Amino acid sequence: MNPVATSPIAERPRAPTEGPVLADWLAAFSRTDTARVGGKNASLGELLRHADTLGIRVPDGFALTTEAFRSFLAYNHLDAVIGAALEQRAAGASGVDAGETIRRAFLSAALPPAVIDALYEFYEALGHRLETPAPAVAVRSSATAEDLPEASFAGQQETVLNVRGEEALLLAVRHCFASLYTDRAISYRELHGIPHAEVSLSVGVQQMLRADLGASGVAFTIDTETGFPRLILLTGTYGIGESIVQGRVNPDEWRIFTPLLDRAELVPILERRIGLKQVTMVLDASGHPVTVETPEALRQRACLTDAQVLQLARWCAAIAVHYGCPMDIEWVLDGTEHTLHIVQARPETVRSRDDRGVLRTYTLERTGPRLVSGVAVGNRIASGTACVLHDIHEAARFPDGAILVARQTDPDWVPVMRRASAIVTDAGGRTSHAAIVSRELGLAAVVGAGTATQCLDGRTVTVSCAEGPEGSVYEGALPFHATDVRVDALPSTKTALLLNIADPAIAMRWWALPVRGIGLARLEFVFEHLVGAHPMALLHPEQVPEAERTRLAALTQGYPSAADYVVDRLATGIALIAASRWPDPVIVRFSDFKTNEYAGLLGGAPFEPHEENPMLGFRGASRYADARYREGFALECQAIRRVREVIGLSNVVVMIPFCRTPEEADRVLAEMLRHGLARGVADLRVYMMAEIPSNLILAREFASRFDGFSIGSNDLTQLLLGVDRDNPLLASLFDERHPAVRQAIAQLIREAHAAGCPVGICGQAPSDYPEFAEFLVRSGIDSMSLNPDSVVPVLTRVAAVEEEMRRGATPDSGAAPR
Hints:
- By secondary structure, the chain is an alpha/beta fold.
- The chain has 29 helices and 30 strands.
């Protein structure tokens, strides 16, 4: 049965031809009808009207209009009660007393006969449509100042679930009416400067979906932490979704890349995270929502399949296109019919209002002891004294400007959240109440921190959300700074500027920078951040000490095999980086740990030889076809294939590091071919690092095997000058600006260009030394890959140099600095 379709046996109730319209089907309204049915019901009407065109499924229902609410006020002379109570509040009376006075009056008042008749008529007709007498329904409040682009009013009004029968429906409607004057709703209107008298309420009555037997959640069609616009962030949990909004669970989470959603052969899910899903909200024997512990087996399993995730993502993308703005969308998986439904869509109210011409970044100047960590909300940093509140009734003792620490928050906490400088909660995910409101208030927040309420009270701490998706609470007031850059006013350059990215978690933070791709994504950092262990140890745990074997088993829990785990984690990291710059090229370097660094990974020691000089040892290309690491390299190749062929991010270019000879290059290319990575097939490009003198001397031979060079100036300087870059005794001699290094780079650029190969640089030098960047431009380099914080100053310098060259300056041949 399609719950959107109208049953032919039910004739639609008709509103009276004279007098106010008290009720109508939701599909009779559109998003322009906020004044008649409030933001939530107007949006539901819009979705139902266009459900077939959008290809989505929305539960059927009807709405009492704001005329019904006003007639309720007039019938019971409630305007006078409201006015008197709010005057007392303005005069300094307790807000709780004012709200309670109004709500008591609402709940004891009678609905006008005309409103009751309209309710009964439409409720009976809805039963006919659903072919279920006295159907179970969800009764939702919808205020006229709600779900607006500038204010979400998230969770401010009442929703009553699983209402069945006429008497229960009447009571639920009165509860919804009364919720317009909860203390949280009163405070929220005052915060946004919305006069109380200008706000009215509609009540929506919809088919009750059995989320308690299925799953539910929230989706955003924008990255809520970075504003990256080509992403759908989807969260979900088993049961009724209130547990997510209330922050009582750490939900499952998916990131889906929207530009590739229209290609049915692809699975553009960038990242999957299995949340703890600590509790599930279900219906008890009497039909009332209750919370129970989630069984362990379900906690370890995602609440949606990949196919369901992609279906929801396509629906969300279509809704965002229809509305013309980023959206905040609620969904339900009905557990009886196993069908997905959209139950709400509203404009996203925080990131969509950011000025995309300005990039603001926060930088923590140093770290300290980390006390707790969790999900980072936003990218801000704040310091202060932590104040733990175990209950909202303790709010009076919360000092203004302190850091609020709580188990979780709900809409009643908004007044105290407004007074905080940052927020930390034990439970919750990115779509919890604490996360949503913190974004709206512009606060740093770390949610799902586990033990924050047990260990932070009274301590001076720094809350940092500027280090990727994991937020940290550090001991002490640590120094930090914020920087604003007007990126849309920056000049363009002929020389392509790219990014160096280490941690996949922060790649999307830099999406607004005016660069043309990523010149270096280091796979060893993906191992470090996302895999967390030596690949050979995961494949051969029998060779690892027992204590480490237990930790390895914990990492791979829930995966069919250790190999599946490694490929999944590597692919996730690569995909997050590649998506951040799509469709520009993203150069991913195969792993280039040294043996001592590999040995430092979990389980790594048994698989790595001891070397006196690991910098010149068993690293880079020499490992990939060697029996000691061949299986690990196979996993790296499989991850690249998954990103390019399954997820669809074909902008990934692979790069071979520390390739000593053309013959070694041939062995690596053959090994890649064994694992399905063939240079030139499916537009796969293969670059090599130019960091060994032999790479420069035999540039034309290497150019016949690769599609481009990327200069690694650190290793190149070390090997040209004979200086161990890790030796502090020789630190004063290590200088990429030395004439020998500059002349070698200039020669490589000439030789590579003669062979038709582009040349970039991904070493540190252009980020550190403006004059070195100028030398590279004058030498004709094709691209420079920079640290994110260096892009703006280097871009400005490059643009100036290019302008000088256009005016007649001659290219640099590698001479010493002027």
